[in-house]
Queue: 4 jobs
Job 1
Amino acid sequence: MERKAVVICSVVGFLGLLSAATGFGAEGTRIKGSQVQFPSASECVYPRSPAMALGSIAALALMIAQIIINASTGCMCCKRSPHPSNSNWRIALVCFVLSWFTFVIAFLLLLTGAALNDQHGEESMYFGNYSCYVVKPGVFAGGALLSLASVILGLIYYLSMTSAKNSNEPLGNPSVPNQGVQGGIAMGQPQFPPQSTQDPVFVHEDTYIRRQFT
């Protein structure tokens, strides 16, 4: 594996672990319903919690990892292979779609959980009853798991594209063997008349002058 690929995989892997760890940390420190206090019938008092900061860090790390992967591999939509039998291309395409799908869901879960966990003294009225919002169990954990899955799929996508580029058969352009027959036309060698191997005949100078003045 090239040094560039090792560096990219290390950085992206670290960001994926950071996103998952902070996501699970936000799940463990989120505000529960039992922690919300009600000084009055229309007021909610939330305790301080690091869940918002942890959820924001998880979403940011996941976004940076996704940007690095896609910037390193280039635009997937611009690389079309007319040969679907290429296994690297198929793996890269599937992982590319799944990586973006899991990224969008994980990013929304983490941001939504962080936003809902940062409410202080807010309440909503439904049919004459006041209610206080809290993050449901599993929102941050689901975002953490999906962020980890998104990073893993992104790394598989990156490695598949790199392998396809470095293989003997380029992506979408199979190599054409350099043989004697190209395109159905036989390539022949030019024919030259054989050179004469007869020894040269030397004429004496007096004989040449005599013939010239004759």
Job 2
Amino acid sequence: MKMSEAYREKSTITAEDVQNLIKKKDEIEEEIKAYYDVLEDQGVGAQGPLVDVEGFPRADLDLYQVRTARNSISCLQNDHTSLMLEIEEALHQLHAHERAKRALDQQGAPEEAMEQESALPPAFARVDHVTQGSPASQAGLRVEDEIIEFGSVNPGNFQNLQNIASVVQHSEGKALSVAVVRNGQRVQMNLVPQRWSGRGLLGCNIQPLHR
């Protein structure tokens, strides 16, 4: 039997391949059982003599059926042994492939994060305080957020905090597009400068970054 050739030609063993091999193993075991049932029905088993005490063929047996069953059992048992080895090899390959894939995924994750982080524009300011209930807090701004965009202010035109203050003063009641870097990821939000119970229009403190 050459069941293994089709699988050996494949570059990668899949879980479905293993399931198909196990299905074939179960089918062979069913065939072997059926042939053993034939021998039991004949009352001779796998090793019982086919001749009587005088050396003549036993008249109480269907000799052709018994010989066919015994020969088939022998062939199927050889096939079963080969298939069990093949299943073991396939499982080994499958597990090795899965381990390699997990290792590759784990290796690729930090590289992808580094690529994404390196693609972000440089931050020009950092949030070091946000008052609960303030416009900044409601917009989702958090302490340690690094600002890369604040309305029309960006890394290319930022000079000092007066740039941000000017945008805030001219945008009272209007949504400002604000982008920050948080845990290496870009986070976008809309911030509406407005009067509230605390000081100023934002309710947060921003410090420039000197890089």
Job 3
Amino acid sequence: MLTSHYVPTCYGVIQKSIVQQNKKVFNKITSTWVPKMKNLQETLKTVPFSLAANSDYDTRVSVLVESPLTATGLSLELVHSRLRFKDYFGHLLNMEKPWWLEEKEEMLKVGSTLTGFGELVLDSNHVLRLQPPKDGNTYMLILSDYWSYLKQQESSIMLYKFLTAVFVMTAGLSSLCFLIGSAMRPEVTGLIRMA
């Protein structure tokens, strides 16, 4: 189990720490100050963990998660964020404005609701493992339960259906207006008279 560097009572199984430098550099060509960001330090740690049921189901059954960092859809919870301002006197000499450091720590906390989509394998030691599919399908870990994920996907489907219906109605209406306008326009079939 991993312990947060900044929040002593926070425990997790995945920890991502970033120290990012933010400053403004003077661009001589455009005569403007351009923001510049640089990651000074980035660490990513993980420990082996299992998914277990948190309801009335059999709590003895657990699924070992393999390669959680390769999964898509996994967003970690921000547990610490701090800005440290720096002011150096030499910023005028090297054409840099005062900059600051941003410290961020994100974690997948112990006890979080996590749903996994991947290949479920029973190994020789009778341990269930969730791993990336060998056939190239998507391997996903999401921070919600299955029903919340399903509801989110259904709402995005409804949005696309609505946008498709609006587009079809707009295209049909514009085509109908074009046809009516071309039918009502008098056609020039005779010769042009010269005066």
Job 4
Amino acid sequence: MGKRYYCDYCDRSFQDNMHNRKKHLNGVQHHRAKKAWFDQFRDSAAVLHDEQIKKPCRKFLQKGICDFGPNCRFSHMSEEDLFNLKRHMEEERQHKEDSEDRIISGRSIEEWLLKREKKQAALGSKGDSKTKEDNEEDEAESDIPQQLFSIPDLPPSLLPPPPGGWRVSASSEWG
């Protein structure tokens, strides 16, 4: 029986030879099906731009249906549809900005953790030869990023010290 060619865009198959394939791929039906396929992946901004340029379809506005359907060169969107599309586009833009902010803040947390790790390594090598002034400088420099406070159940090692410092009772003995 020979090979068959299946077109995913048109959802049809035919005998595969150079003449049939070329005829199909250059056909109007194939071009419309391919355009419809890729149109479903367009972003809101592109759709809104195209719909604002088009004039409204009189037949669609009068009867609610158009013989040309999605191939009509006029817009089938109402004012309400355009408004909803604008709002959706703004939500997408806001979501994108929020995710970019989280990425940027994620970098600052990583930088803060690296800086903190270096300080702790330096403290371990120095021993207890630090003065009170050194401790105050470290507290001022180790400002904890604000985004960490929004995380519930933050580990105690990442919590800032209380305003008066940690209370250490002299009566408790270790050992």
